[in-house]
Specification:
The chain is an alpha+beta fold. The chain is built from 7 helices and 16 strands. Strands 8, 9, 12, 13, 14, 15 and 16 form a 7-stranded antiparallel beta sheet that branches. Strands 1-2-3-7-6 form a 5-stranded antiparallel beta sheet. Strand 14 and strand 15 (218-222) form a beta hairpin.
Length: 292
């Protein structure tokens, strides 16, 4: 297993913030985003990391940013450490493969979620109301059912805890009509293109979350894109509607934590070696399938 990077401390570089997974640094004109091997479950960061996870998330994002750049530009300046400004190249052993130098965009206050299948909070919503984020769906759909058309179901961005699903009308109030319509249209276009690419490789993208920002007056894609942390990936071969699907993500970790009846409050327990190994292999597997 590769060395686990849980936290980065780059001397002489200003740390802006540590997220659940990413450490973000201010490097003058740009930001440096470093994807660590931290893993969170139920909104709590665990003390145990998943080896290789940060590199895989970064490389999958780069793969998709390239694939959809005909739809919209993104925040990437460079992912090559040797092209980063001083003093970053001297930290190559830490940064290589897991970092991106990006434009300082102003993030939109809405997360853009597209669902092609009925799962997660969307399924819960549908069971109660027959709708997802105010969108009426046909009656009689089962868990994991493919939707007649992908739907755009935005959410607010919560600093702590869960994001809250909102209606499209609410995004218009937050972003203004023009921007709200634009991000909806672009999000659906990205999802449709990515879903077709993934399906050719035997993978269903059940749903995904994207983030946009404004840079030089232009809308661009920011953060990560179509990774196992921001999307549900299912095997097309094993897919069967009517029950939950086996996802290519940290579900192994969640299942383990449920099995030991952890109360979902900090401090989180350590993960056993076999759970770490299996989760690491799961991330590697989806990376190889998508990018090969």
């Amino acid at each position: 297993m590769s060395k686990i990077v849980l936290e980065t401390n780059l001397e002489g570089v200003k740390l802006l913030r540590r997220g659940k997974v990413r450490d973000i640094y201010d490097v003058g004109d740009y930001l440096l985003i470093v994807a660590t091997d931290r893993v969170s479950a139920f909104d709590v960061v665990l003390p145990t990391g998943i080896p290789g996870k940060g590199r895989i998330l970064t490389q999958i994002s780069l793969f998709w940013f390239e694939k959809v750049k005909d739809i919209i530009d993104n925040h990437i300046v460079s992912a090559k450490v040797e092209e980063f400004p001083e003093p970053l190249p001297k930290y190559k052993d830490i940064l290589d493969g897991r970092s991106m130098l990006v434009k300082k965009a102003k993030p939109l206050a809405v997360e853009c979620i597209v669902r092609g299948y009925l799962s997660g909070s969307g399924w819960k919503d549908y069971q109660k109301t027959g709708m997802v984020c105010g969108i009426k769906l046909p009656e009689g759909l089962v868990e994991s059912a493919k939707l007649p058309e992908p739907i755009y179901t935005p959410s607010t961005k919560a600093e702590k805890g869960h994001d809250i699903n909102i209606s499209f009308e609410e995004t218009v109030k937050i972003l203004g009509e023009e921007t709200a319509n634009k991000v909806k249209e672009i999000s659906l276009s990205i999802y449709k293109k990515a879903a077709n690419i993934a399906e050719e490789k035997g993978i269903i993208i059940a749903d995904t979350k994207m983030e946009f920002g404004v840079y030089d007056g232009k809308l661009i894609l920011i953060d990560e894109l179509l990774t196992p942390d921001s999307s549900r990936f299912w095997s097309l071969k094993n897919y069967k509607a009517g029950h939950p699907q086996d996802s290519y993500d940290k579900q192994i970790v969640r299942d383990y934590l449920i099995s030991i009846k952890w109360d979902k409050k900090p401090p989180a327990p350590q993960l056993p070696e076999d759970i770490v190994y299996k989760t690491s292999k799961r991330y590697e597997e989806i990376f190889m399938i998508l990018t090969s």
